[in-house]
Design goal:
Number of domains: 2
Distance between the termini: 38 Å
CATH architecture of the largest domain: 3-Layer(aba) Sandwich
Shape: globular
CATH class of the largest domain: Alpha Beta
Radius of gyration: 19 Å
CATH topology of the largest domain: Rossmann fold
Bound molecules: adenosine monophosphate
Number of strands: 9
Length: 298
């Protein structure tokens, strides 16, 4: 595995690459969720580029940019064992030199859900992802369903700006008790870690009512609220049932797939989780079809 520490090094390496390239962008402190993206990329491409960059422009002032967990030696050994060919690790100064003044903004789909809670977050995400796409020129870029809105926003950007690549969406990897893996789970103390299972319990409860025939978004949200309220350490940021393409909140029953998203503060971290209803769609093909496919191809 070649570690590329600068943009000129990446340019040179990219010029010498032949065959298809899969890109896995990350902020590091890798876990099995990231590695599932790497595994898909490894299977589906001739070469795999992973990137590790804690992108300052997607953090707002009150967030954890300066304390975001990092362990590059461990990340490198995980990536190397998984057969990654190149890892690009730029510094903030390389990605955002003093002269930097160009940002990419996706308008409507970046406004609700996480966008409503985190001012400027998606502008930072789309800007850095556009730069990483230009720098690595992948055939397929891999993103996790864990950040479902991020997938929808990036897919919109790819279509709108005609990036010549495909987006692959990979299902959420969970701990044995159902908690979605996240680098920020490290912030949870043991008591909070036990409480954090409430997100998955909420998903399961909502799903069982959906399975039993409940289709009214308001009723499903009431059910979700009740589960969260019963956990004293959990503070609801939002729960939403939305159209998986527009991300507009649903207010009428529908048989079309719905995106159920949840953000809950437990101790320091805000934890995110989501599922597509019906639950049978939460497979690689299902999430890619619902969240990651070009609208024109539908
Ligand atoms: P991050 O390092 O948090 O920016 O995440 C990098 C990529 O890994 C993003 O596309 C995430 O959606 C994805 N990811 C994070 N956690 C998980 C998980 N538990 N399961 C699957 N993918 C994940």
């Amino acid at each position: 595995m070649q570690i590329l520490n600068s943009i000129p090094e990446l340019h040179l390496a990219r010029r010498l690459m032949t065959g298809s390239v899969g890109l896995v962008p990350t902020m590091g402190y890798l876990h099995a969720g990231h590695m599932s993206l790497v595994d898909y990329a490894r299977r589906e491409n001739d070469l795999v580029i992973a990137t590790i960059f804690v992108n300052p422009t997607q953090f707002s002032e009150n967030e954890d940019l300066t304390t975001y967990p990092t362990d590059l030696p461990r990340d490198f050994s995980m990536l190397e064992s998984a057969g990654v060919d190149f890892v690009f690790v730029p510094t903030p100064e390389m990605m955002y030199p003093r002269s930097f003044q160009t940002y990419v903004t996706v308008e409507q789909v970046s406004q609700g859900l996480e966008g409503a809670q985190r001012n400027g977050h998606f502008r930072g995400v789309t800007t850095v992802v556009a730069k990483l796409f230009n720098l690595t020129q992948p055939n397929i870029a891999y993103f996790g369903q864990k950040d479902a809105q991020q997938v929808v926003v990036i897919r919109r950007m790819v279509e709108d700006l005609n990036f010549p690549l495909k987006i692959a969406v990979c299902p959420i990897v969970r701990e044995p008790d159902g908690l979605a893996l996240s680098s920020r789970n490290i912030y949870l103390n043991p008591e909070e870690r036990s409480a954090a299972v409430v997100l998955y319990n909420t998903i399961q409860t909502v799903n069982s009512h959906y399975f039993a025939g409940e289709r009214h978004p308001n009723r499903l949200l009431e059910i979700a609220n009740d589960v969260i309220k019963a956990e004293p350490l959990a503070q609801m940021s939002y729960a939403s049932l939305s159209d998986p393409i527009t991300l507009y909140d649903l207010d009428m029953p529908t048989e079309d797939p719905m995106l159920f998203s949840l953000a809950v503060q437990i101790g320091k971290p805000r934890l995110l989780d989501n599922c597509i209803l019906p639950l049978s769609l939460n497979t690689r093909d299902g999430v890619t079809a619902v969240l990651g496919v070009d609208e024109k191809a539908r």
